[in-house]
Amino acid sequence: MYALIIAGGRGERVAESAPEPVPVKPLLEDATGRRLIDRAVDACRDAELLVVVAGEMDLPEGVVRVREDPPLAGPAAGIAAGVAALPGDDTDDTDVLVIPADLADPAAVVASLTAPGVITAGGRLQPMLFRAPLPALRDACAGDLTDAPVMRILRHLDLPAIDLPEALVADIDTWADAVAHGYGRH
């Protein structure tokens, strides 16, 4: 399995709702100094290759960092940039796991995606949480995905839904979310 962590957004809702200036969302730290991106990387540690789509940030050795072009072109463009960095060809049947960097508990989500599928929670599709075969994902990422919705990619994939409890797929979108999950000052 390959893994893509999408960490390239602006994180505006966190920044706008924080009582003081904060780093970009993937770099938010908990009380021990562990960053959101660190938790996501740790959750994907069993991947054959791990690609983080993000701006400049320190990452562990062996983790590949790429950036969508143009920068901040949206998560679909980020997924396409990550897929372009993966090895293999149309005969490579390796699965690709895709998660965002802002999950409160990325390890639980990754553990739930043991086969191709897309996560739903409370009946709502979670388009940034899926696992798909590499050839199909390459095909789905063809063309210009600048500012395109991730649904444009998912529509080309025939993935079964994997329903999880909403609490399990919680993400950090606001300062209140960050504090509730142990990030930021309490």
TrEMBL record:
InterPro entries: MobA-like_NTP_Trfase (IPR025877), Nucleotide-diphossugar_trans (IPR029044)
Domain MobA-like NTP transferase: from-to ranges: 3-156
SUPFAM superfamilies, sorted: Nucleotide-diphospho-sugar transferases (SSF53448)
Record's protein name: Molybdopterin-guanine dinucleotide biosynthesis protein A
GO MF terms, alphabetically ordered: nucleotidyltransferase activity
Pfam families tied to this protein: NTP_transf_3 (PF12804)
